[in-house]
Design brief:
The complex is a heterodimer of chains A (358) and B (258). Chain A is built from 14 helices and four strands. Chain A has 358 residues and is mainly α. Chain A has a single domain, classed as Orthogonal Bundle (ABC transporter involved in vitamin B12 uptake, BtuC). Chain B is an alpha/beta fold and 258 residues long. Chain B has two domains: 133 residues, P-loop containing nucleotide triphosphate hydrolases (Rossmann fold); 90 residues, P-loop containing nucleotide triphosphate hydrolases (Rossmann fold), CATH 3.40.50. In chain B, helix 3 packs parallel to helix 6. The chains are: A mainly alpha (358), B alpha/beta (258).
Chain lengths: 358, 258
């Protein structure tokens, strides 16, 4: 009843090709941005900002990167965490070698380094597909993680084997390190994630995105349209690894503050894969849904007994969190195998006709 | 009509997969502006011939000249950029994309804006997008598929999918359009529609068409000249009337008394 495009006539192809052609969607997006930029920093507590929102945004960014690869181009990768690690270690090396340079420059530069490494490991994708490609990217995962642990130069021969983030400031405000406030760090992450989501959305809605999806859906026909498979696939690997690299750098510099090689192990790769599949393959919005489900849902479940006034032992709560989160994931996948983004689409379709059945 | 300039010349092409000889020393040509049919029983090598023409298969022997340029090997995207478009026997659409996006993919080679502008999706990139959208809308109008513009093609009925596939090939503004069984599995009405589109494409856009089809009635009505293949050999070549009265063709289709 409220969500209807009735009366919104489009008189130009520009209006019809817009990414959000329906007015209600544009208002919704503006509200979300308003909440993210104004309401959360003003009203949110430190826990909400530092432990919920910052990790959520960083994981969503990495999920967008993986979604470009799996959801849009149809190339399965199990090496996302390794590419995030490349971003993190590159950023660490660069910022310790040249500490006077603006940290944002290094975060983006380390994205490009991850991008180069991603392209190298993407080369086999021309010849192999599906599960076989997944195994090839698994090699990247193990090899790179080994490098993070064994190549001393990467962690500046730190005896603990971990990388620790020094303090950096931007225009006189501490951005990383112990003196940075959660709100500052949140704004840095939010700005980067919003800008990169906007860029990803532009890419997937244009020629490059259509070429990726053509390669995904029918690579033989794509070749006949004049799409060269290797450049298209390598570009997907490059963009995807860039996103993973920036997310990895943000994860260490803004979220954790320090990291060991284990932070970028195969579990993180799988977690991101789950986010992409549960959120919705081939949907940017789905990447946010997936990250929310995997990261925020356990936090809510963990906090629920206290909020409801029940006294449950902390060990039991931990077990229950796993059980309930797992059950909900299965529930959502049974309800809609194509992910939460599709569920959202169906919901919107229903809302258009509401209160009538169709 | 035929008799004009030769657009595509196939000379002594042979293609084998291991011991199986799919095409055996076949030569024929396609003149600019004609509708050329390739017919023959199942397994005669018709689809292999199309695959050779647009660069999927590389023949062991023989040469192919397109636009007067001779080549032995060519990659599919090179064929595409020279103006050879193609539809498939089993519909090969991009199933997850809408009709409009499928047809826009056909414009991929004509779009020039680089990664930087694509990232911004403003100014030149958006202008380019709109310009190609206009072109695709003309194709959508022409094929009468306005109502399914925004529908994912995976959900469309077969006849419409075939039509969208033709639209996607037309979006490339091809000089030579290869149609592999455009009417397979269609009912009479759909066949009539498709025949009308093929004739219109040929006459209005001046596109040269090579067509594989099993419905002999359609082939005889549509085509200017026909090549008949059997077991990888060319057994006849000529106008519909010549082919119809050729004894070898009658034998191939009706069988011979031994």
């Amino acid at each position: 009843m409220f969500y209807r495009e009735v009366g919104q006539f489009k008189t130009s192809y520009a209006a019809d090709q817009a990414i959000f052609p329906i007015r209600q969607d544009r208002i919704g997006l503006a509200l979300i941005l308003l909440v993210a930029f104004v309401a959360i920093p003003l009203l949110g507590g430190e826990f909400l900002i530092a432990s919920v929102m910052i990790p959520f945004l960083i994981l969503a960014l990495a999920a967008i990167g993986l979604n470009i690869l799996i959801g849009y181009t149809g190339l399965i990768s199990l090496g996302t965490a390794a590419f995030m690690g490349v971003g993190a270690y590159a950023c660490y090396k660069l910022s310790t070698l040249f500490p006077q340079v603006n940290i944002l420059v290094w975060i983006l530069t380390s994205g490009f380094i991850a991008c180069a490494v991603g392209v190298v490991f993407g080369l086999p994708s021309l010849r192999i597909k599906g599960f076989y490609l997944a195994i090839a990217t698994l090699a990247a995962q193990f090899f790179l993680q080994w490098c993070f642990g064994r190549v001393g130069w990467l962690y500046n021969y730190n005896p603990s084997g971990a990388i620790e983030v020094p303090g950096h400031s931007l225009f006189g405000v501490a951005v990383t390190g112990p003196s940075a406030t959660p709100v500052t760090r949140y704004y840095v992450v939010l700005c980067i994630v919003v800008a990169m989501t906007w860029i990803a959305s532009n890419l997937v809605h244009g020629r490059i995105g259509r070429n990726w999806m053509a390669v995904r859906d029918m690579d033989i026909a794509a070749q006949l349209m004049g799409i060269r498979l290797l450049p298209a696939k390598l570009l997907a690997f490059a963009v995807s690894s860039f996103y993973a690299g920036v997310a990895g750098a943000l994860m260490v510099f803004i979220w954790l503050g320090a990291a060991e090689p284990e932070a970028f192990n195969i579990n993180l790769s799988f977690l991101l894969l789950f986010m992409v599949i549960i959120g919705g393959l081939g949907s940017l919005l789905g990447s946010f849904f997936g990250a929310a489900l995997i990261h925020i849902l356990p936090i809510i479940v963990r906090a629920a007994p206290n909020a409801l006034g029940l006294s449950v032992g902390s060990a039991t709560v931990e077990h229950l969190t796993y059980v309930i989160t797992g059950a909900l994931i299965i529930f959502f996948l049974i309800v809609e195998p194509h992910g939460l983004a599709r569920l959202w689409q169906i919901g919107k379709q229903k809302l258009r006709a509401w209160p009538f059945p169709y | 009509m035929s008799g004009g300039e030769i657009l595509l010349d196939v000379e002594h092409v042979s293609l084998a997969f291991g011991g199986v000889r799919a095409i055996n020393d076949v030569s024929f040509n396609i003149a600019r502006g004609e509708i050329r049919a390739i017919i023959g029983p199942n397994g005669a090598g018709k689809t292999s011939m199309l695959n050779v023409i647009n660069g999927f298969y590389h023949p062991q022997h023989g040469r192919i000249s397109f636009h007067g340029k001779t080549r032995a090997r060519m990659k599919p995207y090179e064929a595409a950029s020279q103006g050879i478009a193609r539809t498939f026997q089993n519909v090969a659409l991009f199933k997850g994309m809408t009709t409009l996006d499928n047809i826009l993919t056909g414009r991929s080679l004509k779009m020039r804006r680089n990664l930087f502008w694509q990232m911004l999706r403003h100014g030149p990139a958006l202008a380019e997008e709109i310009e190609h959208r206009k072109f695709c809308e003309e194709i959508i109008d022409f094929l009468e598929i306005e109502h399914i513009r925004k529908a994912p093609v995976g959900t469309l009925p077969y006849g419409l999918q075939k039509r969208v596939e033709l639209g996607r090939a037309l979006a490339m503004e091809p000089t030579l359009l290869l149609l592999d069984e455009p009417m397979a599995g269609m009912n009479l009405e759909e066949k009539q529609d498709m025949s009308r589109f093929i004739v219109d494409v040929n006459q209005h856009f001046g596109t040269t068409i090579a067509l594989i089809e099993h419905d002999i009635g359609v082939v005889m009505d549509l085509s200017d000249r026909i090549v008949v293949l059997e077991y990888g050999h060319k057994i006849a070549d000529g106008t519909p009337d010549e082919v119809k009265s050729d004894q070898k063709v009658i034998d191939a289709y009706l069988g011979v008394a031994h």
